[in-house]
Amino acid sequence: MSRTKILYVEGHAILRDVYAQLLGLSADFELDVATNGLEGVHKAEIWQPDLILMGLRMPIMDGFEAIRLIRSQSTTAAIPIIVLSAWNSANHKQRVFEAGANAHLTPPIEIAELVKKIHALLPH
Q: Per-residue pLDDT for the chain (124 aa), expressed as one digit of tens each?
């Protein structure tokens, strides 16, 4: 059985490294990372991940715009997207879902909770 491909798009290097390591240890995921939204859009098109984890505050292109671009491409439009962000106001959550995200999680994020959410959003 093939491993689930997850693209993690996050501008903050420490967060990116921590979650990448924890996901790699706790589940059978093949993980790739992007350091900004534009890179994430390109990697999503080329690599075709099963799911995308998306930060919001990033250089070059933020997560909101990256989500909108991913949703606008026929080859990536259906990929589930989970936003991982400390931005938790009603306005930010509304913007996350309007952009096209499937879920929004705020720190502290338990890895078990994240893995459960990933599995719930993957096509069965």
A: 578 999 999 999 998 888 888 887 766 788 999 999 999 999 999 999 999 999 999 999 999 999 999 999 999 999 999 999 987 778 888 999 999 999 999 988 888 899 999 999 998 7
Total number of domains constituting the chain: 1
Which token pair is 4?
């689930």
Q: Which domain holds residue 53?
A: 4-121
The answer to whether the CB of 70 falls within 8 A of the CB of 52 is yes
CATH number where 116 lies: 3.40.50.2300
Find the radius of gyration of the CA atoms of the chain. 13
Provide the whole-model pTM: 0.94
